[in-house]
Specification:
The complex is a heterodimer of chains A (114) and B (378). Chain A is an all-beta fold and 114 residues long. Chain A is 0% helix and 43% strand. In chain A, the strands form 2 sheets. Chain A has a 5-stranded mixed β-barrel. A 3-stranded antiparallel β-sheet of chain A has the order 2-1-3, with no helix packed on it. Chain B is an alpha/beta fold and 378 residues long. Helices cover 35% and strands 19% of the residues of chain B.
Chain lengths: 114, 378
């Protein structure tokens, strides 16, 4: 069982590392998809990484106002999807996560800005 | 043993209110059986794709009853946009094993007129992870927009690079009866169309359509128009965008498996049908397949590489972007088109010396990959 993360209401991203081959991942898995190993260690990520993608979504699923989403390659390895609350954040920038709203969602801004 | 694609049927696609999902499936099946010259009572196996509008638990059974079949074997399949090609691949396996003589593969959906755009968007967004992605508010266009953003940044390109692809698809659709959109568009019009999920704009995205498609896969040819299912290959490396490996989505693995089974190389392929749910989809696919260098799909499109007389004639019916996208049947229209090309029946849009075709579809977010090689009978 993974330690609690933002999907359980805790303000953190959790990264899992395979105990056999060192592969790492973000979404819950039973086995390592590279080596099949079942022994893994999950730990909170520091919350920083490289922004590799940003989209501003105009046609939202529920018809609400536009939202921005991004992909960030965490320093621990895996790629994480989150909201973006910083209009200046663009691919190639360093990004840092915050947990905003209720229920709290991971949301990225340029590292050094709030 | 050689397996034969004896019949293909595809309806016009568009916003065409009237038939329900089963109605479109019956229309397509009628066309495919007539094309094959196979009577309904000769069909021993039915494989049907899901319909998001109908949402039935037993899509093949409910189709068989409506159409008036009592087959020995039926099953439904559900691997997103790759479902049509996956059904074709499994139909070929069943025939090859001796378990089936004539397999009817069918899909159809009134996706444009049977449910609201909002409902379709919500249903399709469920390909996102229920805990880690869907709560963020993403949609399928948003997931592909993130891929587009990463792609444009990786190769230092502007959105005009991707806009070349819908322009080419629209040009093809202008020469294909039954296409949803036929009026030519320009790169400027793509870039000025309303933003859906930036950098993707309306004309970067396929429409919702009503329509259907069907195949008959058989142990023996039924006419000299029958084609050979020469090989197929699949790869399923992830479901969710958060687990996708850029540049290694599984597309190339699936293609190489299909080419190897058919004992051909890219040099042998004369016509292509490549899944194009969004401009970015077809760009990433042709590049991972190795047809163009990384970051160059748009430049190749601008230079005419995907034209009827280009190096890689592709989606000469207009693809999902312009022929239309009715769900599972959308990816099957690519097969119907290359079949017409291999039969040398495409008139003014005919690819010359056309003997071998490669078709590729993906489901989810470049998640499920299926490639199929078809060949004109020698």
């Amino acid at each position: 069982v993974n330690p609690p993360d933002w999907t359980d209401g805790q303000p953190r991203l959790v990264v899992t590392r395979c105990g056999r081959c060192g592969n790492h991942w973000y979404l819950p898995r039973v086995h390592c998809p590279v080596c099949g190993g079942a022994a893994s260690t999950a730990a909170p990520a520091a919350g920083s990484g490289l922004c590799v993608a940003v989209t501003r979504l105009h046609v939202t699923a529920d018809g609400s106002d536009p939202i921005a989403l991004g992909l960030v390659e965490l320093d621990e390895g895996p790629t994480v999807m989150g909201r973006v609350h910083d209009e200046t954040l663009a691919p190639g920038h360093r990004a840092r996560v915050a947990f905003l709203g209720s229920p709290a969602l991971p949301s990225f801004s340029s590292e050094g800005t709030r | 043993m050689v397996v034969h694609l004896t019949g293909v049927g595809v309806t016009p696609f568009g916003r065409l209110p009237g038939p329900d999902s089963l109605g479109w499936q019956c229309d397509a099946a009628e066309r495919a059986l007539a094309d094959a010259g196979v009577e309904p009572d000769e069909v021993d196996t039915v494989v049907a794709g899901y319909s998001t509008v109908a949402g039935h638990l037993m899509p093949a059974n409910v189709f068989a009853e409506r159409f008036g079949l009592r087959p020995a074997t039926v099953f439904g399949m559900s691997v997103g946009g790759a479902t049509g090609l996956a059904m074709l691949a499994q139909a070929a396996r069943l025939v090859e094993s001796g378990a089936a003589r004539h397999v009817l593969v069918v899909a159809g959906e009134n996706r444009a007129s049977g449910q609201s755009r909002e409902t379709s968007t919500k249903v399709l967004a469920q390909v996102g992870h229920p805990d880690y992605e869907v709560p963020l508010g993403g949609t399928v266009p948003a997931y592909y927009a993130l891929l587009a953003s990463r792609y444009l940044w990786t190769y230092g390109l502007g959105p005009d690079a991707l806009a070349e692809l819908p322009v080419q698809m629209r040009e093809h659709a202008g020469r294909k009866a039954g296409a949803q959109f036929q009026k030519p568009i320009t790169v400027a019009e793509v870039l000025e169309s309303r933003p859906v999920a930036e950098p993707l704009r309306l004309l970067d995205c396929c429409p919702f359509s009503d329509g259907g498609a069907a195949f008959v896969v058989s142990r023996a040819p039924t006419s000299d128009r029958s084609l050979e299912v020469a090989g197929s290959g699949q790869a399923h490396r992830h479901q969710h965008l958060s687990a996708l490996e850029a540049g290694s989505t599984g597309a190339a693995v699936a293609a190489q498996r299909a080419l190897a089974q058919a004992d051909v190389t890219w040099e042998d392929v004369d016509v292509y049908g490549i899944y194009d749910s969004f401009s970015i989809t077809v760009a990433m696919l042709v590049e991972e397949l190795g047809l163009t260098p990384p970051g160059r799909a748009g430049a190749y499109a601008r230079a005419g590489a995907f034209e009827v007389d280009g190096r890689f004639p592709m989606n000469t019916h207009g693809g999902l972007l312009s022929y239309g996208h009715c769900g599972v049947g959308g990816g099957m229209a690519h097969v119907a088109e290359v079949a017409a090309q291999l039969r040398h029946e495409r008139g003014a849009a005919q690819v010359s010396a056309c003997d071998v075709a490669y078709v590729h579809a993906d489901g989810g977010v470049l998640s499920a990959h299926v490639g199929v090689v078809l060949r004109r009978a020698s």
